[in-house]
Amino acid sequence: MSLNDPQWGKRGSGNEGPPDLDEMWRSFNQKLNSLFGRRRGGPSDQREPPSARQLGGGVGLIAAVILIAWLASGFYIVVEGQRGVVLTFGEFSQVTTSGLRWRLPYPVQSHEIVDLTGRRTVEVGYRGTVKTKVPKEALMLTDDENIIDIQFAVQYTLKDPMDFVFNNRRTPDSVLQAAETAIREIVGKSKMDFVLYEGREQVADAAQKLMQDILDRYKTGIAISNVTVQNAQPPEQVQAAFDDAVRAKQDLERQKSEGQAYFNDVVPKASGVASRLFEEANGYRARVVANAEGEASRFRQILVEYNKAPQVTRERLYLETVQQMLSSTSKILIDARAGGNLLYLPLDKIMQMSGTGSPELPGSPRPPQATEPPAPPEAGARSREALRPRERGERQ
User: N or C: which end of the chain has fewer CB within 10 A?
Assistant: First the structure.
């Protein structure tokens, strides 16, 4: 059946089709009239006042609806990661976990939803970006009486919903004041260079610990999760002078590094040379001592032989000494008593050439070779005969 059909909504024979809407509306109006009064018959169409029973039934129905709505207002939902704090006439009653919860409606009980997992951030010394500075919060005095400009951010969560609800009025302001107090104490006990350069992480860690101690002392229910130093520098008024000082310090460190490199290059070499000289001196000492001990031992052995045959030992020593001296000189001794003209043979040059072992080049002139004439046998015999009587006399 189409909605445009004029018979739609009217009750037909055999109870077929949907109920009549006009009839339902009239029935609803009659019930309302029966609650608040009914019409009297007659042309005046006046309403007669409702009876006490009808009035009581209507009020009870309205009261029941209001009571149901009031009791239904006590339902609330706690999301995962949150806690519900139930208050009875403003006094703490209980802490509820996640899920659908019910409490007595207002004004008997009320509740506060506390988010324990959400991370909140407080900015100290700036707002939004580090360029938007707040000098009242950022300027701090160090232990060496210098002023620095420092900006940092504090992230925190909630750990105790009851303390958070009852012991906090403006939570960001509480964290801001605790953070500023802690960082000023840490910076006031530190040197300027330590805060600006190598000690940023130590300053942040110490400030986080001190902030947590302050907030726990006041039972705020806040847990500091992280402290990050965004920027730390000297004030803008002295930035140029500070940059000059930093450059001078960098030059000093560079020169120190160069000096250390030169030291590392020169000292090992000098140590090596000194060690080599020391070893050479030890070797020379050992050689001299060994030679001296050998000479002393040889002298003692010669002394023993000398005591046995003094004349023979004396002559042997004389001949060995003369041989040793003549072997290291280029002098040539000629027996003048031999007589005759002897050809000079350059033995020193021949010995020098044979010692160097220089090869003879083809076509190079050779030195003149002369053969020494054999000594006359008479001269040799006379010389031997002259020595024998002298030796016999010395032995006797």
Answer: C
CB atoms within 10 A of CB 84: 21
Tokens of 358: 């220089």
Cα dihedral 291→297→299→300 (10° resolution): 170
Helical H runs in 73-199? 135-138, 161-166, 171-188, 192-196
Q: How far, in Å, CA of 335 to CA of 294, rounded?
A: 37
Return all residues near 225 (Cβ < 8 A) that are at least 6 apart.
119, 155, 156, 157
SS3 149: strand
Instruction: Please state the pTM of the whole predicted model.
Output: 0.49
Q: How many residues does the chain have?
A: 396
Residue type, 226: N
Maximum C-alpha span of the chain: 205
C-alpha 201/C-alpha 197 separation (Å) is 9
Contact 124, 179 (CB under 8 A): yes
Q: Please, what are the averages of pLDDT over each run of 10 residues along the chain (396 residues)?
A: 49 52 71 57 50 61 84 85 85 84 85 85 87 86 88 90 84 90 91 86 91 91 90 83 84 92 93 93 94 91 86 86 79 63 63 59 44 44 43 42
How much of the chain is in helix, strand and coil states, percent to nearest 5? 55, 20, 30
Amino acid at 113: I
Q: Is the peptide bond before 107 cis (omega within 30 degrees of 0)?
A: yes
